[in-house]
Structure formats: structure tokens, C-alpha cells
Amino acid sequence: MGKKKMHYMTMLNLVVIGNVLSTILIIGIIFGTVYYRYMKEEVITSLENDVGQAESYMSSYIESITNTGEKLAMDVELGLAVEDYLSSDISRSVDGKGMIDYILQSALSMNSSIENITIGTKDKIIQRDGYSIDKDSHMESICNETWYKEIQKDKLERKFAENTFYKNTYAQKPYYLYATKFKNKFYQTRDQEDRVIIITFNTTELEKHISALTNNAVININVWWEENGEKKLVYQAAEQKDVEEYLIGNPSDKEKEKVEAGYVFTQKETPAIGWHIVGNINKSTFYSLAYQVEPWMVLIILGVIVVSVILSAVSSQAVSKPMKKLVAAMEDIENSQFHKVDNNTSCIETDKLIFTYNRMAGRIEGLIEDIKMREAEKRKIEFKVLEAQINPHFIYNTLDAVKWVARVNQSDKIADIIESFVRLLRISLSKGREMIPVANEIILVREYANIMIFRNNYEIEINYEIAEDTRSLSTLKLVLQPFVENCFFHAFNSEARDKHITVRSRLTEDSLIFEVTDNGIGFCAKNKNMKQMTGIGIDNIDERIKTWHGSGYGVEIISGEDRGTTIRIRQPIIKEEIG
Predict the structure, then answer these.
(1) Which of 208, 338, 386, 424 has its CA 20 to 30 A from that of 499?
(2) CA 207 to CA 211: how far, in whole Å?
(3) Are strands 511-518 and 565-572 parallel, antiparallel or unpaired?
(4) According to the model, what pLDDT value does residue 387 have?
(5) How far apart are CA 17 and CA 28, in angstroms?
(6) What are the pLDDT digits (tens) for 132-147?
(7) What is the C-alpha to C-alpha distance for residues 92 and 105, in angstroms, rounded to an integer?
(8) Contacts of 390 (CB under 8 A, 6+ apart)
(9) DSSP of 465-514, one letter per residue?
């Protein structure tokens, strides 16, 4: 009599039902027997750790700002650059401006929290760029600040303050500044030095880090500081009006007692700037964090878990054992070892799965043998193709030899045409690259035109109006030659005189423009299929440009009957070659 089989889903449902019942039982026991107790030390330790981490990160955060300021203040190169920039010599001023740009932009790139860096003297800000505040709007505000005057007079070594004069329209939030006097010893005495470095920074990264430490439902962290007798809130993890009033407002003694009765507080201070980090937790939450489970309840929970594990193990064994055999057989397939798996299991689905695997393994084995035979044939064909390939260098060297034989025999015209053909071949191949310099594309067109004029004895004058600022840019290769070829074959009729073709290149604000212009018969009914006249086809070149650079670029035809034709090719400005 055959072994009785069961559906896999039936077995799985039994396991799930057993686990759900066990979970419900455990949860019921926990909620029915657990009572919360006060565990002050553990919760306070957690609170103090969060505040300590926030203070540690804040200290390192501020230290990175101050280190940047101190390094710039002591940078001799920066001091020299400022002197050059302020000089009446235009050349020195330009060089100084470039060095200031380089040094300050480098400092900005090292710290994403720095909004801008400003250099000021007694009565002005000496520069304005993307790295500096707007001197037109803020110079008077800065120079009138008491701390600024005190730094100038060496009464104050450095200053941390809220930046009240700078606002970023894209980020409506407070900014802070760190200011100090230059210390690069450019002057012999300190009273001759009047330059101040001002770093404006934001607290975005600081807030992200502190926010990651806190759980607004449990622990909240607030940062506040006092400036000129006024307390200001720098950061608040969650909106707590009573706590905010307690920290920076003027609450009455009764209000203070109410807040202190409802919260547990811990506080640390950052000595460098006097910012206070205050962590607080609601006392009702504070008391609920600790609980204790009775010993007898632990025994019941363990008993339920053991029973559940046993039931799950027995139920899953019927599926896991045949699946392990199946996995082992599949791993053997990776080593080209094909063998069947016994499908006499307790589960209908695993029987079907193993049966399907056995049939699939047999078919794969047959397919692999077939592929091996096909690969052997493919290698034979590839070998024959390799044997038939000609090294392009063999062609170049052969043509070069023929050129020199022509020169020896004083056939200079033939030698020149062979040399033009070799250049055309080299640039056309370009080692498989699609992008080449504009200068090379013009050489390719020039050599092609030389060959066509020699071969067909055309009486056509070709002019090149190539803007110098385009020669070093990159272009898709072979975008001009097909249109020059089209001019040779289709632009002029047999009666035409004074035939001209002009090849131009120029730059617009955002594009590299090529134009091929002729004074031929123009676009008319006779050549309405003009787009298909060259071997490559205008449509193909247009599609190729759009594929590389997007739909905003491509080929434009400007023509009229008996008015000649202009082909305009638009590409993006690429300042370096793309592989």
C-alpha cells in the first residue's frame, strides 16, 4: 500500500496556525502578567549616552569648522594672493583672484556644511563669488558689527555667532559664523594686519546626526545657546512648547516646577562655543520603559516555544529533506554531473517538483551536448574568418611604400593622392573610436576632396572657414564627408561655372555648428530624394547624432531652387574626446 501524501500548503498552514496560536498565547501571558517597574539607572544611562554622542559629534563638527578657519587664517599663499588681488597691477590682481578662488573653493569642497567663506578688511569685503557673501548687501552690516571691530583691534581672537545678515532664499533657516583674523605672518606686527576670514556655516548635517540618535516618542534632544544675554534655540528634536519655554524663555517658578515634574533632564555643554545639549524624556514614558517578568511566566513561555519548535520541525522535515536532495542534485549540474532524484516523498508538490527536475535535467544534458557540437563548428568558422583578416597596418605600410615609389619616379601627384588616401583611412578608422577632434574631421574632408578632384578632374573650389575655438573640440566622425560627397555628385549640373563648396565650423552658446554650403542648383523637384543621395544617407547621420546626443541635435537642410544648398549639423560642445 502506497505512502499517504499530503499537500504542501496543508502542512504549511498547520505550521502557521500552530505558530500563530503560540504567539497569541505568549502575548496574552505577557500583557496579562507583566507590570512596569521603575529602572532609573538604565534609562538615564541611555539618555546620557544619546546626549553624549550628540555632544561628541557637535564638538567634532564645530572643530572641523574652526580647523578650516584657522588653516585659512595661517595660509601664507592665501595672504599673498589677497595682497596681489588688492594691488593696482592688473596682472597681479588677476593672478591673486585666481589663487583666492582656488584656495577657498578647495576649502569649501572639504566641508559640505560651509555655506560660504568671506575675506574682509577694515571697511570692505574684498571679493564676491559663489564662495562669498554679497558684499553689496552685507558689507556695511559686517563692518559695523562690534565683534568685527574687536577682532580687527586684536581685542577678540575669534568669534562664534548667529549670522544675522546672511539669508539663503532657498533655505529659510538660521546660519552661523566663525570669524578670526589672518595669522599668516605676512606683516611684521599684528596691528598692521587688518584681514579677517569669516566662515558662514549651517547645521543641516548636525541636525541629521542628532535626529538619527533620537526617538521622538521616547528621548528628545534640544540644543540652545546664549548670545548677548539672549537664549536661542539651535535645534529641537520634537515640538515641545513647555520644554522650549523652560530652556530659553522666562517661565515662572511654578511653570518650572511643572516641567521638571513631567520630564527627566540631562545636559552637556560644548566648551568651544557654549552650546548646551539637553536631553529629556517624559516621565510617564520613563517609568514604562522598565518591566520585569515573573519566573513562572518565563517557564510557561519556554514550554510553549519548545512545543511550537517541535511541531514546526516535524512538519517541515517532510519538505526539507527531499528539497535538500534536490538542491544537491542542482549543484551537481554546475559540475556537469546529471543524475535523477528519488521522488518518493510525503508531499504531492515536492513529488511534482522532483519529477519536473528529473525531466529538465535530462533535456539540459541533451542540449549541452548539442551546444558543444555547435561551439566546435563555430570555432572552426571563426578560425577561418581570422585567417582571412588583413591587418590595417599592412594596408597603410603598403600604400606608404607605393607613395615613396611614386616620389622616386617623380610622380608627385600620385604620391600626394596616395598620402591623402592613407590619412583618410586612418581618420576613418580612428582605432574604433566614434568621437574624434574637429581638426581631424576637417582633415578627413580635405583629403577626400583632394582625391575626388584628382579622380574625376572636378573644377570645384572648396573653401574652409573653421573657427579656431572649434578645432580642439570633439565631434562624431564622418558627419561632414557624406555631405561634401553629395555636393560633388548632385549640387552642380554640367553647365555650371564658378562652382564653390564652403565648409564652416562655429560655436553658439550651447552648440557646435558645422555647415556645408554649395552654390549649386539647390533643392528642387529634380532632387526631392536628396536625403537618400549619399551612400550613408542624411537620415542615417541625423539619427546617429540624435542617438548619441539627444533629440535637440541633428541635421537641418536649408535650400531653394537655383539658390544652392546649406546643410547645418548641430552637436553639443564636447571639450574632450569620448571613447
Answers:
(1) 424
(2) 6
(3) antiparallel
(4) 42
(5) 16
(6) 887 777 788 888 888 8
(7) 20
(8) none
(9) EE-GGGTTSEEETTSSHHHHHHIIIII--TT--SEEEEEEEEE-SSEEEE
